[in-house]
Amino acid sequence: MHYNSFYQFALKLFKENGIRCISLKELQARAKENLIEPIPKDNNKQIIVEHCVSLFRKEVTETILLACQTNKPPFQQLADLFYELAHYLGNINAAFVYDIKKHYPAASKSLDQLQQELYHQKVLKLLELAQQNGNIANTLNIDLELEILNQHILFLLEQRRKRKEQAFSQLFNQIFSTRFEGLELRSS
User: Fold this and answer.
1) Number of compact structural domains in the chain
2) Domain containing 91: what range?
């Protein structure tokens, strides 16, 4: 795989192993082994993590925006958004996110802000459009539904971590279709 920068390479390693599992010396050595240049001269892991979280935030943003850039009905866009986001996050070692939350508060705040500003806004907008278009019941509480869907994506990721033998798409379809069982779902 080709990396445009040391930080992309570092992000890949952090997503695979967690941040605390990769020392600064190991990161620099592995970058050198893989002919990644330029390797930053500073010896500050905090700065490297900040750059990596910025790249991670960009990747998550692109995943969310791409899933919603279609002419599909809002409910299908919502399903695509959850599938793509869960699939993307499902390929990341949980230690990466844990390390950010526990040891890098500024980076954690940045990711929380992304969740509130982009993800929640997109989901709320799509739920409201789906409700207006008659794809989901008018009696649906949008705020409650957002929270339920957030919990389902966390459950999906946890199940994927625990049961590697079950295909990701099977888990996703099982959870998403079960959640909306009994609701009126029509394609627009």
Assistant:
1) 1
2) 53-179
Each as own residue / partner, the long-range contacts of residues 53-62 (CB below 8 Å, 24 or more positions apart, any chain) are 53/100, 53/104, 53/107, 53/110, 53/111, 54/110, 55/7, 55/8, 55/11, 56/11, 56/15, 56/111, 57/110, 57/111, 57/114, 59/88, 60/85, 60/88, 60/111, 60/114, 61/114, 61/118
Q: Look at residues 177, 82, 63 and name the one whose alpha carbon lies nearest to residue 126.
A: 82
Whole-model pTM? Answer: 0.72
Residue 157 included in any domain: yes
Q: Which two tokens stand for residue 180?
A: 């909306």
* 53: three-class secondary structure by DSSP: helix
Are residues 184 and 137 in contact, defined by beta-carbon separation less than 8 angstroms? yes
The CATH number that applies at residue 103 is: 1.10.357
- Per residue in 21-70, pLDDT (tens digit) is 999 989 988 988 888 777 777 678 888 999 999 999 999 889 888 888 87
Give a yes or no: residue 138 inside a domain: yes
Q: Are 7 and 55 in contact (CB under 8 A)?
A: yes
pLDDT by residue (tens digit) across 116-134? 788 778 877 887 887 777 6
Give the up-direction half-sphere exposure of residue 28: CA atoms within 13 A in the CB hemisphere. 11
Q: Is 129 left (phi over 0), alpha (psi -120 to 50) or beta?
A: alpha
How many angstroms separate the CA atoms of 77 and 68, rounded? 5
- SS3 assignment, position 167: coil
